[in-house]
Write a structure and sequence with these properties.
By secondary structure, the chain is of the alpha/beta class. The chain has two domains: 48 residues, no CATH class; 329 residues, TIM Barrel (Alpha-Beta Barrel), CATH 3.20.20. The protein has an eight-stranded parallel β-barrel, surrounded by eight helices. Helix 11 packs antiparallel against helix 12. The protein is globular, with a radius of gyration of 25 Å. The N terminus is likely disordered.
């Protein structure tokens, strides 16, 4: 008879016990004293279970940490230009532009060819698979163009969210199959970091323990595979802003989710110095009647991070989560001026909050490209300053102040 006891350290201790005759099957036809059961040594089992098999060499670790540090160098953040083909339709259709491969290429070209002013505030660009292999008008590959500017190239590697059966509409993220081979190819093609998005939502019954555990585990598995291929993983457990929950509830859920994520990263032996975290800011639900100040949002956000994110993590690159361009900059600035000790770089990984005004100015017209690029540069510079706690809001134009919230946002 084997009993299995969990000890306080979380290690499992197995003990073998010799028990009475009834524990043995009568068909053996012999007295239990004739059966020897070897006594297990709990110490040897514990030692075996915690044995460290090196996952990465010192050289691999050094490369990963250096990549992560370059992306979140002081005053720099990430341009998320990894919208899927379907998501690009939601960006282009409202401005009267057909969602074709050529129009997507033209739009991203105007972002990537912005002048040298963005070099001091954009440390990394996340590409969608299609975009990684597209070229500028003169035939230069987008990834080479970005790399030659000293900006790190990233790639979205997840395959989208799928339903988690037996839950109240919760999801997990697919894409682990073949991920190692894809990462190896992307590394050859110039990508040095990756992104994988998991989605959780707040309601009376969610997020469930199952959804938290499953998404934390899939993020850790993805992160481990990326690092084996020399790619820095951005870990993105997004808690959607949908709902009427208050700031306190979002903070509580954010803490529980991040605690689970870092437990899972530890279980999977992920090298934290070679990772970045892409979380939501702690904000009230979009339908919450109470409106909170940027200082309150900053305090709740930094408190949640301090309770859950190890100081070894190189940087935190916030998602904008449907905030207006101006809100995203003001809140990031407040986070960086929050009077608490913050051991990580706290910066941005924005899609809509860097691009909304640019899209609005462009509208697919060749004559508007310069104006659109100027709008993008303006937001990039604003967020670069916010990442240093040096942004001063000048109010906002109509486009910059417009909410970018999309219910149940799929990427």
């Amino acid at each position: 008879h084997i009993s299995h006891t969990c000890c306080a350290t979380g290690l499992c201790e197995f003990r073998c016990h010799l028990v009475g005759a009834l524990s043995f099957s009568p068909v053996l036809g012999s007295h239990p004293s004739q059966h020897k059961v070897k006594q297990c040594d709990p110490l040897s089992l514990s030692a075996t279970m915690t044995h460290q098999y090196p996952a990465l060499t010192a050289e691999q670790k050094k490369e990963l940490q250096e990549i992560a540090q370059r992306i979140v160098a002081p005053g720099k953040g990430i341009l998320a230009a990894d919208e899927s083909t379907g998501s690009m339709a939601k960006r282009l259709n409202p401005i009267g532009v057909e969602n074709t491969e050529e129009n997507r290429r033209r739009y991203r070209q105007l972002l990537f060819t912005a002048d040298q002013r963005i070099d001091s505030c954009i440390g990394g660009v996340i590409f969608f698979h299609e975009t990684l292999y597209q070229n500028t008008d003169d035939g230069t590959c987008f990834s080479k163009l970005i790399k030659d500017r000293g900006i790190v190239v990233g790639i979205k590697v997840d395959k989208g969210v799928v339903p988690l059966a037996g839950t109240n509409g919760e999801t997990t993220t697919q894409g682990l199959d073949g991920l190692s081979e894809r990462c190896a190819q992307y590394k050859k093609d110039g990508a040095d970091f990756a992104k994988w998005r998991c989605v959780l939502k707040i309601s009376e019954t969610t997020p469930s323990e199952l959804a938290i555990f499953e998404n934390a585990n899939v993020l850790a598995r993805y992160a481990s595979i990326c690092q084996q291929n020399g790619i820095v993983p951005i870990v993105e457990p997004e808690i959607l802003p949908d709902g009427d929950h208050d700031l306190k509830r979002c903070q509580y859920v954010t803490e529980k989710v991040l605690a689970a994520v870092y437990k899972s990263l530890s279980d999977h032996h992920v090298y934290l110095e070679g990772t970045l975290l892409k979380p939501n800011m702690v904000t009230a639900g979009h339908s919450c009647p109470t409106k909170y100040s940027s200082e309150e949002i900053a305090m709740a956000t930094v408190t949640a991070l301090r309770r859950t994110v190890p100081p070894a993590v190189t940087g935190v690159t916030f998602l904008s989560g449907g905030q207006s361009e101006e809100e995203a900059s003001v809140n990031l600035n407040a986070i960086n001026t929050c009077p608490l000790v913050k051991p990580w770089a706290l910066t941005f990984s924005y899609g809509r909050a860097l691009q909304a005004s640019a899209l609005n100015a462009w509208r697919g017209d060749l004559n508007n490209e310069k104006a659109a690029t100027e709008e993008f540069i303006k937001r990039a510079e604003a967020n670069g300053k916010a990442a240093l706690g040096k942004y001063e809001s000048s109010g906002s134009g109509a486009a910059a102040g417009k909410s970018l919230y999309v219910a149940n946002h799929a990427y």
